[in-house]
Here is the input.
Amino acid sequence: MLRYDLHTHSTASDGALSPLALVERARERGVEVLALTDHDTVAGVQSLQGEMGEMTLVNGAELTCLWGSRMVHIVGLRLDIGCDRLLRYLDGIDLLRQQRAEQVAVRLMKKGLPDLLPEAKANAADGVIGRPHFAAAMVMKGLVKTEQQAFTQYLGSGKVGDVKMQWPDMSEAISMISQAGGLAVLAHPTKYRFTFTKIRELLVQFKADGGHGMEVSYTGISPSHQLELIKLANKHELLVSAGSDFHSPAQHWTDVGRFMPVKQPVEHIISHLL
Here is the structure.
């Protein structure tokens, strides 16, 4: 099989490398098929058109949505990035993120921190703004030593900067991906802190909503959990996908193209992308 990575991020959302720098890093590591799947945007993918050389680019995005009251991520692969409906959908999510950023800034100021919104916006550049950009601003201003400390004290789940959003429903995200000609893939199922009972319930709904595939290999997954996910993918007749979920070279535990191989008999999504 071609060497691939079907889940990566750039500065178009919360990644550290520009789309072109990400492509170069992937090329240096022998990746032949790369999906750029920034959070709720295709801006990075749009900037890469015609810039891939011999590497194959899969147009993608990682859509944030809700399964009931729980946030999950759906990776859309093979998207038509010129689809008007998709672009309007993403514009709507961008507006939600901008409004959330303003609320985060206000909450942090009430805790005695300075107004970090200008720095957070600058860190996001023209990309999708999120809590990592506030974390970087805190480090820049000397308010915390590391971005992890920023999340531990201010931005993580249940902290003052954790502003909840009314994300689109999972069924809406899957439908949007399908309308844009893409394949909907449930991202990193074991990263949501769900029990496997909950993951099984999620997969039943995901499949009923028209989902196409599931990631079974990504940074941090254990061999036993990968095997269990492969069994579930086969049971629900879901395509299997995999990717590093790469964000930054500073995160030394991961890299582009680096994740546990998928060795079990599966129907791999890559055969539907090329």
Summary: The longest strand covers residues 56-67. Residues 4-89+168-272 form a domain with the TIM Barrel fold (CATH 3.20.20.140). The two ends are 12 Å apart (CA to CA).
